[in-house]
Amino acid sequence: MTRPVIGISTYEESATWRGWHRRASLVPTDFVAGVAEVGAIPVLLPPYGGEAEARRVVAGVDGILLVGGADIAPELYGNPREEHTGPPAPDRDRWEAALVRVALDENLPLLGVCRGMQMLNVVRGGTLRQHLPAVVGTDAHQPAAPQFATNALRLHPDALPGSVLGESHPAACYHHQAIDAVGDGLAATGWASDGTIEAIADPGRPFAVGVQWHPEVEPDRRLFAALVSAAARRSATQLVP
Fold this sequence. Notes:
Helix content: 25-40%
Number of helices: 7
């Protein structure tokens, strides 16, 4: 079977390498390795373009992986900006929203991680809590230091991602925002002990899933394998005359 192609979103940051200090299109290698290790060909998608460009891109890939990063502009979900919300990234917001819309239009397998899950929710009309510690009263989801917290999550066993990972999962978390109102056609399928939504899925699609945690830094590759398998199945059906 032909290896499926997974498009992976990137973001632009100031970076340093070999003495150079430049703006760069970045994505942690954990994401690239995560899909490559389970049989896919990763292709990086920097944040340039809108819906027309997204349609060209989606026509050439078998699945989309949206990675984590900066806060989504609250204007996209109709809320005023709050004190703790990070600076806007309009090019990235525009690009990733277009990727989600087109992927859903084409029924392309889609996995959103952290910010990627939030973008899936926002595109479907959902909203976000802009600063989770103000809601739950702790920093359990995002430690003060740049390191991942491990939180025990409860997953719905008959819905993605629980149907792949089981009813509980020790998740690597680092997020100060989370879903508030769930978007149209989506269902909450995973929760932290404090009730924070940690996973969503569209039950009407083969694979449209968002997880608030960071599977790319975990040794368990089953979620990436599920994305790649869904992409391979779709690719095979597209080849049938």
